[in-house]
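HOLO CASE FILE
Compound: uridine-5'-diphosphate
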Amino acid sequence: MSDILYEGKSKTVCRGPDDDSYIIRYKDNATAFNGEKKEVIAGKGKLNAAISNLIFEYLAKNGIETHLTKIIDDTSAVVKKAEIVMVEVIVRNIAAGSFSKKYGVPEGTALKNITTEFSLKSDELGDPMINDSQITAIGIATDDELSQMRQKALRINELLCALFLKMGIKLVDFKLEFGRCGGKIILCDEISPDSCRFWDAATNQKLDKDVFRRDLGDVLEGYREVLKRLNLSEAGNA
Ligand code: UDP
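Model generated. Tokens follow.
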């Protein structure tokens, strides 16, 4: 078992095979509402690892540099060591979740334009929303880094919307994390049903973590469906 460097809520970060890498291990733990709701869901780690790996490989093939270097097994991968930029980048195509609540826009309303927003990565503070001038004022990221993250996030949205549309899935919204590596900003963390809202295009059935957050039934049913469709898609055939 490799040395654990950091125990996250849904992943463990371990010492990598060399100084420029880490090993990340996906766990079965699920949390919501800033850690207030917790559960172990057997099999979630494997599903998220498989889904995120397929998506990261698809993005890499389409010109997005990511931290993923090598898949080790069902739940582990070698990733580039990056210094995580301490903001979460959220992209929205359709109103849902905190956006619907905060702005009184019914869930499912198609947005007239894509929105991007940043949240400070801080469990202690509850990940508060933060704007560009506040981010640069505190020194969390530079203007150039913010513009790179926003541009990359929008390109990722384009690539993923196209991919998921063909799979009969609406990409409602998602969260990304970026890191600094070798003077560049690269995509880090994961893209999975834990960090995205995926709705079946025909029925609007939720295929993501909202099933856990809102106690809507068997959460992994949706995750399995996303993986099944991804495997049959361009991302699975690559
Ligand atoms: N999200 C995430 N981690 C967070 C907050 C949000 O992965 O700490 C994802 C969430 O799954 C959704 C999107 O970002 O796909 C937008 O989430 P929102 O701001 O609506 O927050 P929520 O309603 O999930 O609290």
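CASE NOTES: Residues 7 and 185 are 23 Å apart (CA to CA). The mean pLDDT is 97.
CLOSED: yes
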